[in-house]
Design brief:
There is one protein chain. Strand 1 and strand 2 form a beta hairpin. The protein is globular, with a radius of gyration of 16 Å. The two termini are 14 Å apart. It has seven helices and two strands, in the order H-E-E-H-H-H-H-H-H. Strands 1-2 form a two-stranded antiparallel ribbon. By secondary structure, the chain is mostly helical.
């Protein structure tokens, strides 16, 4: 499934995944009240995880950074878009490390473990990001820690949806991409 990162197919799929990630956040988002930031429920993290699994670390991360970071830049989150891009990088490192550990075997059990790890990593990175965001606006460190913890519900929901949706969508998309690959 993973072509050479500079092949035309990989470049096209990277752009396609970036666009799908952006659209997936733009169209399907549900705002959640929080003490820090303006979090919302979306499927961008799920789609970014799928991009890394299908395209490899470099192109998958690039698609996630463009899709999630681009959304932030164009929709009122530009000041903290660099944190979103950093989160994508950390989650992609975890996904790729686990996939490599499993020798790129994509049995259901391995993909489920990767999806759960991606969701858990996202909770951790979002918590750290919320602390940084609170500190950026002048909140004291102690208050930032508490407020960031209280702002985690949207992230937990997104992480649970990532853990559930990645395995489901992975095997569905794998069939579609294999069918498209062999029809050439």
């Amino acid at each position: 499934m993973r072509d050479h990162p500079n092949s035309l197919r990989s470049v096209i799929l990277t752009g396609l995944f970036a666009a799908i990630i952006y659209i997936g956040i733009f169209i399907l988002r549900i705002p959640i009240p929080a003490m820090v930031g303006r979090p919302f429920i979306h499927f961008g993290n799920t789609l970014a995880a799928l991009a890394v699994l299908f395209l490899g670390f470099r192109n998958g991360t690039l698609a996630g950074v463009i899709g999630l970071g681009g959304f932030d830049i164009l929709n009122g989150y530009a000041a903290t878009s660099w944190l979103t891009m950093l989160e994508v990088l950390v989650v992609a490192i975890v996904i790729e490390s686990l996939f490599r550990f499993f020798d790129y075997q994509d049995h259901r059990k391995q993909i489920i473990i990767i999806a759960i790890a991606a969701g858990a990593t996202k909770i951790f990175t979002s918590y750290c990001t919320s602390i940084i965001e609170a500190l950026m606006v002048g909140t004291s460190f102690k208050t930032a820690i508490v407020a960031s913890f209280l702002s985690l519900p949207a992230t937990v929901i997104n992480s649970i949806s990532t853990a559930i949706c990645v395995p489901l969508l992975y095997f569905l998309l794998k069939k579609v991409l294999l069918a498209a690959h062999f029809s050439n």
